[in-house]
Design a protein that fits this description.
This protein is mostly helical and about 210 residues long. The protein contains 6 helices and no strands. The protein has a domain of about 80 residues.
Length: about 210
């Protein structure tokens, strides 16, 4: 019974979302607000039990790690945004969060993305295999001309202008491929929902 009820609720909410294809309407707004509300509630519950309790509250109250009072106070100051008179107090924890996150992100992206991408593009132009060598040459030309396009220290004229124009084509092709991949992933989600409606709800497909 509960499984059947869940299928009906999921199907009706799916139809409410699809109703936006016609125009904005109360059914779509209901499904949208319900999704946002449930996601926010689930996220808060997850953070409370998986982050706040094991990383702050239990070590502070049960293990006596008094140094954790500092992040606890900073966390409370974040809620001062709800009070106009004391909203300026939230700038301190926000500055701390942004500063720490920026430092960690720079190191993470530098070691995890930048260096790995540089290593991935240091490819031999001739490998003994024609197709692999051709791919490496195309990739090398695309990387070099793409970097030339984003080089604004010199005017794009002559050889630099030609390289920048070639880089533009490579960038457009890569953007188009990324967009196509995004569209295909969304189409797979659409197919999944339609299959759910026709199989689990209507029973047309088995």
């Amino acid at each position: 019974m509960w499984e059947l009820l869940g299928i009906w609720v999921a199907s009706l909410l799916t139809l409410c979302v699809f109703s936006f294809l016609y125009k904005d309407n109360p059914f779509y707004k209901f499904a949208e607000h319900l999704f946002v509300g449930i996601s926010a509630g689930y996220g808060i519950t997850l953070e409370y039990y998986n982050v706040f309790l094991p990383n702050l509250w239990r070590p502070l109250t049960q293990q006596g790690k008094l140094l954790l009072i500092v992040p606890f106070i900073f966390g409370i100051l974040l809620f001062s945004r709800f009070f106009r008179r004391y909203s300026w107090l939230s700038r301190w924890p926000m500055a701390l969060i942004i500063g720490i996150y920026a430092g960690i992100t720079i190191v993470g992206y530098g070691s995890g993305d930048l260096i790995l991408q540089i290593n991935a593009n240091l490819l031999p132009l001739w490998t003994g295999k024609w197709l692999e060598s051709f791919n490496n040459i195309i990739l090398t030309i695309g990387v070099i001309t793409g970097l030339i396009y984003f080089s604004f220290s010199k005017e794009h004229k002559g050889a630099i202008g030609a390289g920048a124009k070639i880089g533009t084509w490579f960038l457009m092709i890569s953007f188009g491929a990324s967009f196509g991949y995004t569209v295909m992933s969304r189409m797979s989600l659409l197919i999944g929902r339609i299959y759910f409606l026709m199989a689990a709800w209507l029973g047309i497909l088995q």
